[in-house]
Amino acid sequence: MNRTEFIIATAVILFVAFVLGWFACWLIHRLTRVTRAEMGELEHMAQQLHDAEEARDSAITQLEEREAALIARLSQTASDLHAARDELRETHAEIEELRSYINQKLARNG
């Protein structure tokens, strides 16, 4: 094989490699190409995701508001309970004073 035949063989091999590469690239793009229907579906899914995120944010806000209301109600109930306990203690002390007074009166009269 002389120099000219070697150059021609190398050029043919390079051309065939180029054509095979171009064909592989075209085939990959053809197979992985996104169609309009797929784009529409992707847009629909993105809208659904956006709506779901808004619903989640709304639910979180409602949950936080409900939690704050329940905490306030619990705090109010706790302070009412504390006041009732104080009142019961005072009433119990008053009852004991009255018993003591009645017992003293009965002891004097009896």
Automatic annotation (TrEMBL):
<keyword id="KW-0175">Coiled coil</keyword>
<keyword id="KW-0472">Membrane</keyword>
<keyword id="KW-1133">Transmembrane helix</keyword>
<feature type="transmembrane region" description="Helical">
    <location>
        <begin position="6"/>
        <end position="29"/>
    </location>
</feature>
<feature type="coiled-coil region">
    <location>
        <begin position="42"/>
        <end position="101"/>
    </location>
</feature>
<protein>
    <submittedName>
        <fullName>Uncharacterized protein</fullName>
    </submittedName>
</protein>
<keyword id="KW-0812">Transmembrane</keyword>
